[in-house]
Amino acid sequence: MRKGKILVIDDEVQLRKALSRIIELEGYEVFQAETAVKGLRILENEPEILLVICDVKLPDINGMEVLQTIRSGYPRCEVILLTAYGTIPDSVQAMKLGAFDYITKGDGDEQILVILEKAMEKARMQCRIIELENKLEARYSFDRIVGKSKSITETIDLVKKVAPTDSTILIEGETGTGKELFAQSIHTASPRRNKPFVAVNCSAFPKELLESEVFGHKRGSFTGANYDKKGLFEEANEGTLFLDEVGDMHPDLQAKLLRVIENQTFTRIGDTRPIRVNVRIIAATNRDLLKESREGNFRNDLYYRLSVFRFTLPALRDRKEDIPLLVNTFISIYAFKTKKKIEGVTDTLLEKLMAYHWPGNTRELKNIMERAVILSENPTLTQDLLPVEILFPQEDAAGQHATLEEIEKVHIIKMLAYTRGNKSKAAEKLGIGVPTLYRKLREYKLMQDPFKIE
């Protein structure tokens, strides 16, 4: 098996063939070209070439220009320049332009092979980095947002238009609708994609801790401040800061946040020196911030600063046609993680999911499918793997006016769900005998229930 592909560009036939033969003996596949144009054509048709060894003096294009073309168009590739008369200024220039090394013709084979191995190792590492970056970008791209419904596709199309800008964005939506996923997708689709994406949940910290987290502090500024601490604004410099549940931010911090948005400067706790940053802000909330601002619960001026571009994510109950797609996606994820072969779901299970009102939105559906995959012992997921509130929404919702029989029926159903249809365990939990349980099942016409208790 070949160790990799290398291209040698040199118009000196004997030297090119000799060098290529030496490299081939080391286990590489070598391509040869006598001109820059032919070499670049080979490189275009052979994307797996990771190293180009190029003469500086070629009949058509100077080797330095070839170097610049390869570095700009083929970032995976490393380039080693060859010259008959090496000079220090030329060597320095080559390194500045991105050459891996600059060697003189006639150097020993062993020296060249050592340099070649190091260049190939760097190229392989660069390939791994690019692959990881592509995976990360794919993970947080808009393509990862599952849904074909009109409400979600229109939202995506709208957000894609503003993602490449630096505009501040406010994402509104119920808990579990995917606000952070949208924020990450916006960051990935922006020119800041290679800079930090920093997220903070404003409802997870008390005022003092949140201020320290977001803006940082100086050593000795308060009890326990034993060292200087960078805030998240500094961590997110040149990138994106995602403020989740911004509606829960204390009014004092709202004023400080407003100043940062207006002039991109802030001051750490206990410091007097302003710090300048370049940060794009994406905020999210499950509240109606416009209503909150009108009622005096949120700064009106901050609301308008945050909502330069504002959109609301649809609740799952408003895009139920996306549920089958989401179910298949989550099954694929958790089947892979648990190393199970899951082929699909029963029609009855899907009907139950479609009938449910989804107060926890997509996050709730994701958790339910994870649970179902983990519990399943068969390749097809069945409805007995679902929680009771989804299986029996009407019975479970029976209120204080329900009859004793209705309450008993619901309780039996819950216990059967808990024991996954095991009648002996269910009877034990209920404090009755198995024959009594059978009698009640017949009485309540539950013998054909989804737990297969026949």
Write the layout of secondary structure elements.
Elements lengths: L4 E5 L3 H13 L3 E5 L2 H10 L3 E7 L7 H11 L4 E6 L4 H9 L4 E4 L4 H31 L10 H13 L6 E4 L6 H10 L8 E5 L5 H9 E2 L11 E2 L1 H4 L4 E5 L6 H13 L1 E2 L8 E2 L3 E6 L3 H6 L5 H7 L2 E4 L10 H16 L5 E2 L1 H9 L5 H15 L4 E2 L6 H4 L1 H4 L7 H15 L4 H8 L3 H10 L11
Parallel strand pairs: 1-2, 1-3, 3-4, 4-5, 6-13, 6-14, 7-10, 10-13, 15-16
Antiparallel strand pairs: 8-9, 11-12
Task: Provide a brief overview of the structure.
By secondary structure, this protein is of the alpha/beta class.
Description:
By secondary structure, the chain is an alpha/beta fold. The protein has 4 domains: 5-137, Rossmann fold; 142-314, P-loop containing nucleotide triphosphate hydrolases (Rossmann fold, 3-Layer(aba) Sandwich), CATH 3.40.50; 315-379, Helicase, Ruva Protein, domain 3 (Orthogonal Bundle), CATH 1.10.8; 387-454, Homeodomain-like (Arc Repressor Mutant, subunit A, Orthogonal Bundle), CATH 1.10.10.60. The protein has helices spanning 13-25, 36-45, 63-73, 88-96, 109-139, 150-162, 179-188, 207-215, 232-235, 251-263, 289-294, 300-306, 323-338, 347-355, 361-375, 388-391, 393-396, 404-418, 423-430, 434-443, and strands spanning 5-9, 29-33, 49-55, 78-83, 101-104, 169-172, 197-201, 216-217, 229-230, 240-244, 265-266, 275-276, 280-285, 309-312, 344-345, 380-381. The strands form 5 sheets. It has a 5-stranded parallel beta sheet with strand order 2-1-3-4-5, with helices on both faces. Strands 7-10-13-6-14 form a 5-stranded parallel beta sheet. The chain has a two-stranded antiparallel sheet with strand order 8-9.
